[in-house]
Structures are given as structure tokens and as C-alpha cells.
Amino acid sequence: MKLFGIDFKKLILAPMAEISDAAFRKISRKFGAGLVFTQMVSAEGVARHNFTTLRYLSFARDEKPIGVQVLGNDAKILGRAVKEILKFNPDVIDLNSGCPVAKVTSNNMGSGLMDDPKHLGALVNSMVKAAGETPISVKFRLGKDLSKINVVESAKAAADNGASFITVHVRTSTGRYDERPRYEWLAKVKEAVDIPVVANGSIFTLEDALFIKENFNVDGLMIARGALGNPFIFKRYNTFVEKGFDPGPPDLSLVKETLFEHINLLEREFGEFNALDKAKKHSIWYLKEYNGISILLDNIFALKSLSSLYEFLNKHFDNIQNGTYPEEDNSLIQQKFFKRVVFWLLEDNYNVLSKTA
User: Fold this and answer.
1) Which residues form the domain of 309?
2) What is the CA angle 333-337-343, rounded to 5?
3) Do residues 153 and 115 lie in contact, with contact meaning Cβ atoms separated by under 8 Å?
4) pTM of this prediction?
């Protein structure tokens, strides 16, 4: 299904704070993402023409189709923000109703909007009126907690007020990433609205994506953590959907080539000093499933330049290729990755959520 110039048959890259920069978006589009998002931005920051906020909205033509996700809880400010965002010519503007971070929900933003579906509907209505022909979407969680799942009511409020499609993350706000995904709610939301429904949450493998698509009647799939260090999943999914087979995981040479391209793009966007920590983070994600990950973690944070990082990574890839590293149990690393302990953001790093970001 293709609507608004967006191919819902392909995986969508989720908006992720401090992650969804131009480098990551370009790599994801290269491997076949049907739609990518900028990282979320504050509606108030956009309306005030804050420089940092507007910088997050900058994107190149080869990143399209692209969406912008906005965070806010005031209808007038969201309407003004949409009009400003339109100047960048995105393909969709999304209202964040899913962020579970306490400093966001305590200000009645993110998943806090779901506490009042009527107010949420008014926000969507204001955005739709300001957006003209540009589609407005909304990204939800299931609700505050398991005792207050109201995603159906929230989805209906969004649809009734003109949203073009919605995305549902299949966990509650308090459940964060520890709670098991409750896919059964996807079918309930799909039955309640007549607009496309995109599923999000716990899509780490091709098998995960196919399981959700084939069993819960959704129109599309949005991937977040599963694409970190694994942009190859976009091509694997597209190949399976289009040709009926899985080309399999990338060989080591493609992983190396892609990681080095990713680091180069980071340097071009941020400069060496600001790119270094980002490059280290992505290096860990690309290599987390290979032997030697413990050695990489012990050494990579001490590196002081991109040149030393390239040198280290070249040797690391050679050691993997040559079988130098012993077999190791990566299960603990994977557990930490899934729970955002080592491989994700601390809440204090959500600088883009401030009013001026």
C-alpha cells in the first residue's frame, strides 16, 4: 500500500532522540527504508525559531520521503510549529504521543497526552488545519499502564480529527521496554479506525517483522532499536516481501564498509570532535553480535580521535575475520542492548525535549 508518497510495504525508521540524524537516515534509506524520521523536536522550540531545533529539521533530498516528529501539548503552538515545519517540505508530520520519559509525561506531553483523548484530538485537529495537504500522523503507546490501556480511544480521537495514519508501540508508558509486547491490541486498533495502522515495538529481526505483519493485520511496520547497527534489515525485509526469500545477514566486509561510511557521514555532519562519541556508539551497535565485543567495549571508549578509531576498527575487523577472538557468550550484551542499559540514552540526555530544543 502506497499513500501520501509513502510505501507502507517497506519498513519505516522510527524517530529516535540523538540517533535519527542525517547520517543514520541516509544509511537507512540506502538499504531500503520506506520512510525515515528526524528525531523529535519541541513544538515550542520550532515556533520560537530556536536555532538548535531548526537544525534538527534540516534534511537532504536523498533522505525523502521523510517525516518530522513534534512534541507538544498546546494546540495553538502546535499549529504554529506545523506551519514552520512545512517550510522544510517534509512528507509527514507526526505528533509524539508515545514518549514514556518522566520529564516529558510529567508535562503532559508524549504518552501523557493519552490521559485525555479529547484534548489529544484537539491537538491533531489544529495540526491538520495548519498542515494543508501534508499528512499528520500520531505515534502512541498502549496507555499509561496495564490498568489504563486507552489506545483505541486515543486512536479514534486522532482519526476523527483528521490524522492520516497512526503508529502503535505495543507497550504501555510505565512498561517502558521491560514489558512484554501486547500485539493483540493492534487488531483492536485496526478494527476501530479506518486509517492505516503501523506497528512498532520489539522488531529486531526479519522474523519479528514478518510475524507481526502476517498475524495482526497492520498496514505497516516501524523499526527503532532493531535498526541500530543493522540497517541491513531494511533490504532483507524488502527482498522477502518482493521476492519471497531472505538474502540473509550481511557478510563481514559489508558490515565494515557500511560502518565506515556511517562514521564518515557523521564526521561530515558534526565534525570530528562531536562525531567521535557517536561513531563509538554506532561501532558497538554494528559489532555487538560478533566475537570480540568484550574487547571492543574495553578499549573503544579510550580512543581520542577518529583516526585512532579507524585504526582500532581495522584491526578489530581483521581479528574477527581471522578467527583471532575466542567464542564468547553475547547474551548479557544483548540483554543490556534490549533494555537500553548500555546501548541507549539516559533520560538526562534527552536534550531535544526541552522547550528550547
Assistant:
1) 252-339
2) 105
3) no
4) 0.92
